[in-house]
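Fill in residues.
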């Protein structure tokens, strides 16, 4: 149908944490959010809405604590929006793109004249990937700048997912 588009109206990571959630859980939520948003853009969805910023009671879906300080997932949301905000999908990362390393997957996007990759460790293991050339910028899941070189190690905590920007 012409003039129609798709959107995901309620995205969240529903998970109970009896006795309280750990920092591992909060990192997992941050990775999930970055991955879900990247996937939504790669599929051409016009929106991917996280429900809700303060979360569902007892479901640990919040991006902000009750005092409005951010969980890591909020920082991941903000970083993804900054890096991929106006990006257009170009396809998936192939094993040959990352030096043949198994367990690393992701998406490619066009942002202005540059190309941005969103890559992550699919098995949560540490992986060192060889990029096709040195990038102009690299960020972790929270938007922290990382060294930009043709070799990148994805590892926990905080670096299982990265945004990598290349010039043509």
């Amino acid at each position: 149908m012409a003039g129609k588009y798709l959107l995901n109206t309620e995205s969240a990571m529903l998970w109970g944490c009896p006795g309280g959630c750990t920092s591992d859980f909060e990192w997992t939520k941050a990775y999930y959010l970055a991955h879900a948003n990247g996937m939504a853009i790669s599929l051409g969805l016009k929106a991917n809405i996280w429900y809700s910023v303060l979360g569902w009671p007892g479901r640990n879906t919040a991006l902000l604590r009750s005092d409005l300080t951010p969980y890591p997932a909020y920082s991941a949301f903000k970083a993804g929006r900054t890096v991929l905000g106006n990006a257009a999908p170009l396809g998936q990362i192939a094993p040959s793109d990352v030096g043949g390393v198994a367990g690393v997957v992701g998406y490619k996007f066009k942002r202005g004249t540059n190309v941005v990759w969103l890559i992550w460790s699919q098995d949560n293991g540490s992986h060192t990937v060889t990029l096709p050339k040195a990038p102009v910028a690299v960020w972790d899941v929270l938007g922290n700048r990382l060294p930009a070189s043709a070799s990148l190690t994805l590892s926990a905590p905080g670096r299982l997912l990265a945004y990598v920007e290349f010039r043509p």
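The CA atoms of residues 79 and 155 lie 18 Å apart.
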